[in-house]
Amino acid sequence: MTDEVEGARQFRVDGPAYDRFMGRYSRPLARAFADFAGVAAGLDVLDVGCGTGALTGELVARVGPGGVRAVDPSEPFVTACSDRHPGVEVRLGRAEAIPFADGSVDRVLAQLVLHFVSDPSEVAREFVRVLRPHGVAAACVWDFARGMQMLRMFWDAALAVRPDAPDEARTRRFGGPGEIAALFDAAGFVEIEEAELAVESRYEDFDELWDGFLAGVGPAGAFCVSLGDDDRVAVRDELFSRLGEPTGSFALGAVVRAARGRRGGYS
Ligand SMILES: C[S@@+](CC[C@H](N)C(=O)[O-])C[C@H]1O[C@@H](n2cnc3c(N)ncnc32)[C@H](O)[C@@H]1O
Question: Which of 57, 134, 237, 250 is the most buried (most CB within 10 A)?
Answer without folding.
Answer: 57
